[in-house]
Amino acid sequence: MIGTMGPTAGSDAVACGVAGPGAGGIVSRPRLFERLGASARVTVISAPPGSGKTVLLRSWISQAGAAASAAWVTVRRGERDPVQFWLSVLGSLRQTPSGLALIRPLTAAPDLDGWAIAERLLADLAPLQDRTYLVIDDVQELDPVQAQRQLELLVIRAPAELRFVLATRHDVRLGLHRMRLAGELGEIREPDLRFTVAEAAELFAAVGVTLPDPAPLVERTEGWAAGLRLAALSLAGHPDPERFAEEFSGTERTVAEYLLAEVLDRQPEPVRRLLLRTSVLERINGELADLLTGDSGGERVLLELEQANAFVVSLDAGRSWFRYHHLFADLLQLELRRSEPEEVTALHRAASGWFARNGYPVEAVRHAQAARDWELAARLLADSWYSLQLDGQAATTHELLAGIPAGVRRANAELAALAAAEELGHGALEAAERYLSLAERAMASVPDARRAHAQLLVGITRLVLARQRWNLRAVTEETRRLERADEALDAARPQLGEELRALALISLGSTEFWAAGQDPERHLEMGVALARRIRRPFLEFTGLAYQAAAGIYQSFTRAAECGRQAIELAERHGWTNEPAAGLTYVILGAILAWQMRPGEAQSWVQRAERVLRAETEPAAVLGMHRARAVLELARGRDADALAALQAAERLGGRLTAPHRHLTPTRALLLHTLVRLREVERAEQMVADLGEHDRDHGETRIATAVLRLAQGDPRAAISTLAPVLDGSAPLVWPAWLVEAFLLQAIARDALGDEDAADRALERALDLAEPDGALLWFFLHPVPGLLRRHARRRTAHPALIADILSLLAGSRPAPPAGPPPALEPLSASEIRVLRYLPTHLSAPQIASELHVSHNTIRTHMRHLYAKLGTHRRSEAVERARALGLLAPSPVRAVPAGLKSHQ
Q: Is the pTM here over 0.70, yes or no?
C-alpha cells in the first residue's frame, strides 16, 4: 500500500541520518530549505537514488514548522493503480486542517475512476485559502498513461494556495514547461543536492564520527548523500578513519549492495551489459558503447540513463559524451572483473584503437597501458609526444611515459628518445645523453615502418641537447640529419613532420643566435611562419621570443615588436613562466635600460629573474645577468653592475662553445672596472685576454675607455681605428655609438674640434633610431654636446634630451597608485588577463567558455574596482598595480619623446 502518513525509511531516507546510529541528527541545509519555501507553485526535486531527496523534505518540513500543513504521499514501487494513488492523496490531504474542512471522505469502490477523483478533489479544494503543501515522493513510479496525466491536471488547475513538491528519480512528463516559462516552477537537481564539505562534516558529527578533513571523501563520493551516509556507518569505530576515507570506493560492501539493488539490478540485460563493458572508460559516447558491446543504439541508452538520473552524467552541452559517477564506476568495474574477466584486456585494446583513430592520443595510450600492450602504448606515445608537448601537456606526457615499465622504456628506441627529451626539460644533460645512447643501440630492432620516425625522434632530441650545450656545429649536423629523416617520413603523417620541422628551425635559429651563427633570423622567420601555418602557438611564441632576442642587435623597434607579440601569446595561453617568456623579459628590460628608463626596465628584469633557471637555460640567464648590469649602470650603481657581470662571467665558463654574449659581457665588465677606478685590475684583465679576444670590436672599445681613463687619448684613437674602419668585428653594431663617442672625446682632448664634431655627429646618427642614451650617460660630455648643438647638427632635439638627462632633470617616476578598491575575484582576474589583447568581449567569452553577458558583467566590476571607465584605462591601472605585466616597450624614435 502507498504510504500516507509521512516519509518512509526508504533508499533516500537511509542516505542522511534517518536510520542507524545517530538517527535523530539531521543535517540542516538552509540553502535548499530557502528554495523549497520560495513562492513557486511547483517545486521538483529530481536526482538519483540516495541523493537525499526524502531526508531533505523531511527535515525541511520539520524545521519550517510545516508539518500540520503538509500532506505526504510516497508512491509504492511499480504502482500502476491510479485509484489507489488518488485515495492516498485524498487521505493525506484530509490530515491537514484545511483538507479536513474542505475535502469530502471517499470510500473505494469497484467503479471508482482516477479522473473522477481528481475532478472531485479540484472541486473540493476550490475555496482553499490557507497555504497547504502536497509532497509526493517517488513520482517516477506512477503509471505514465493514467496517473501522471491525472496529476498534471491537478497541478495545472489547483488553487494557488495548494503548493506541490514532487520528488523523483528522473524527470516525468507533467507539462511543467508551461510553469517554467511563467516563473512558477522551482527545480532542485542532483548538483544542488551534493553535500558541501561543511555539510558532510556536520553529517559525520551527527553520527559520532570524527574526520579531520572530509574533503577527500566528499570529492570521491561527489557529495552523494547515500555514499557519505554509508561511509559514515563504516567509519564508526574504524581504527584509521583517514585512510579509510581516502580509499573509500564503490566496491565497499555497503555501497556495492546499495548500488546493485537500487541501480544495476533494476536495468534490463542489454543496458546492464552496456554499463559493465563501458565501465573501462573514463568517458563514453554512443559510438564507443556500440563498439564495446557489439550492439547498436548506445547513444539512446546513455541519454535515457542520464534522463533517469541513473548515475550517468553528460559532459558536454550537446549531450554526446558521458561519464559514470565515481562510486558507480567502481562497482561496474568490479562486476565486470567478476563476470567477464577475460574481456577486460580486449575492451581496453578496442577502446585504445578507437581513441587513436579519432584524435584522442592521451586516452589511446592510457587504454593501451591498461591492456598492458606496451608495444602499442609505445607507438601511440611516440606518435603524439611532441604534439602533446606543444599543447602544454608536459605533465601528461610525463605521466604516460612513467606508466610504461622502465625496462620497456630502455629497450624501445622511441621511448628512450622521449625519456632523453624529458631529462633535457629538467636540465639533466648527462642523463639525456645516456638515454640517447640507449635509443641509438635499440635502433636496429625498430621495424622498418617505424625507423624513419624513430630517427626523427632521436635527431630532434639530439638537436635540443646540442642547443642546450650551445654547440653550433652539432646543431647544424643534427639539423641536416633531421631534414633527411623528415623527408623519409610516411607522407600519410605530414602534420607530425611539420611540427618537428618547425621545432628544428626554431632550435637552429635560437642556437645560431646564442653561438653567433651567420643567419639566425632566417631560420627563426621560417620557423615562426611554419608554426603559424600549422597553428602551433607555442612554437610561434618561442620563435618570436628568439626573434626579439636576435632583433635587439639590429633594431630596438623590431625587437620590441616581436617581444610584444610573444608576450601577448604568453598571456593569452598562460605561458608567462616559460623560459622563452623569461628571455623576452630580458630583452624588453635591456631595451629600456639602454634607453635610460631604469624604472620601467626594473619590472621586466625582475620577472626574468623569477622565471629563468641556469640549469635549463644557461645562456638566457647569462643575458639576464648582463641586462641587470646595464640596468644598474643606468642607475649609477656601478658596484651592483660589477656583481651582475661577474655572475655572467662565471656562468659563461660553463658553456661548451663560443657564445655571442661573452664578448660584450667581458667588455662591459672592463668598462665597469674603469668606472670603479680599478684601473690596474682592468689593465690586468686586458693583458689576460688572448689576441683573438683583444681584437673583438667590443673589447677594443672597452680598452679605449681604459686608455682615456689613463689620460692617453692617442692610444684610445689607435685602439678604436679598426672598429671605426670595420676591420674589427662587432657582436652588437650598437656599440659603434660608443666607439664614435669615445673618438669624439679623444679628438676633442687633442684639440681637433672638427674631427670631434664629425665623430659626435656620427654617434648621434647611430643613437637616434633606437633612442639608446646609456653611452652618453656613461661618458658625459655636456660641454662638447652644447658646442655641437651650436653648429650644424641633424639632432638638436636628441642633444637637448641628453643634456637634460645629464643635468638630472629626468621626470620623476609617477607616485605609486593607490590600492584597488577591493580584491578581484578569480573570474575577474581571468577576464583581466585578456583585456590587453585585441580580442573583443564576445571572443573573450568564447575563450573562457562563458556567455557574453558574463564577460560584460565581469568587465563592469573590474572597471569599478580599478576606478576606471574604459578598457585601456583598466589595463594601464592593472599594470600599475602589478596585476598585469608591464606593456611590451616600443623603441622610442628620434627625440626620445617620453623624456620631454
A: no
